[in-house]
């Protein structure tokens, strides 16, 4: 419908934002071209009123057509305006609802696109990280007694671990804020959590010459909580990373566990740079970091502590931080509901020495495949490498692997299809299939399980997780590092 000064009653009422009354359409020149239509419907009078939303925008018109000539009475006008106002309210509410729904769809689409981008980014970053991490682990084992070379290898491993941690944090905060992380709950000994949480930061501890003291409950009186071991290890590791980062060389860092009523406490303190009173209430906010120089020498994204807080809350726990101010160090305490000591069968024991395995390694990233095979050979296993799915099937028929480590994004034949074909080969009954991939979303793990994989490891591989997998014991830990 045209809305201008030359429009009929409806368009003119919307244009002028006022009632347009036509007592007799036969005598109104604007109706000349519409006389036949008016006669067909027996229209003689037309009263049109604008429908204005609360915002003042005209969203329509309310029009009455009459078979008798005449103008509206005051009562007619009042009723018509009430109808127009009611229509305005209904239309406005529907438009607002439509706009909200459109906004929600746009937000969901944006979230989905963001998640897809982050997942792809993580995959692209993890692929080159895998051979770097493998090579670092390999060199560590062969360069014993070469201090200079070992220092360079440690540097490679530290930087690879740092990049892995940053990638994981980006994905974690996205999943956690959307409630898309599921905890793998079970009885967890906090002493073991502390031990595993310390492992990733040990190279930096040595590099900065920090003194680390650990005080945990004894094996006679261990502290257990119900939780996800890998996520609790991640919490300890993230806090320790900050302690190491913000403490000057030669500092002192303490880690302890102790009971506190019905709860168990993990504490981490340092004598580092401390936290200002202004920053203290915000240390668990996203992207918050201590003041630093322009060269960002300390690194990081300001995500780690935000992840810790959300994970602790998912465990029905609390986290607190205390600092006397800048230059006086900081103390973090994680408070978790305590449970009774479980039976020995429920507690994870250490991995026994693994018997040598025949391992098929399949990855189109030749550096990743070759470096992993070299590391497996150094550990006493017998690896065979293939770079394509059809090549892997041919090699498997004669090699008869006990374990197959398969990349997913293979050219020609995907890792999913390769897994199904290997699983269908009678001579490979009982083969253990492990997905080695840069994709680490929960749905990726589900897809690999549906394709027949026994386990899903994320690049770069945590070599302790790989050892568990080779032993036939799938751990709950995330294999991509903390």
TrEMBL record:
Keywords: Kinase, Phosphoprotein, Transferase. It is found in: Cell inner membrane. Pfam families: GAF_2 (PF13185), HATPase_c (PF02518), HisKA (PF00512), Response_reg (PF00072). It is an enzyme of class 2 (transferase). The keyword Kinase applies. SUPFAM superfamilies: ATPase domain of HSP90 chaperone/DNA topoisomerase II/histidine kinase, CheY-like, GAF domain-like, Homodimeric domain of signal transducing histidine kinase. One of its GO terms (cellular component) is plasma membrane. The lineage of its organism: Bacteria, Pseudomonadati, Pseudomonadota, Betaproteobacteria, Burkholderiales. SMART domains: HATPase_c, HisKA, REC. It catalyses: ATP + protein L-histidine = ADP + protein N-phospho-L-histidine. This is histidine kinase. One of its GO terms (molecular function) is phosphorelay sensor kinase activity. Gene3D superfamilies: 1.10.287.130, 3.30.450.40, 3.40.50.2300, Histidine kinase-like ATPase, C-terminal domain. PROSITE patterns: HIS_KIN (PS50109), RESPONSE_REGULATORY (PS50110). Its EC number is 2.7.13.3. Residues 358-474 form the Response regulatory domain. Its main location: membrane. It is a multi-pass membrane protein. Residues 120-340 form the Histidine kinase domain. InterPro entries: CheY-like_superfamily, GAF, GAF-like_dom_sf, HATPase_C_sf, HATPase_dom, His_kinase_dom, HisK_dim/P_dom, HisK_dim/P_sf.
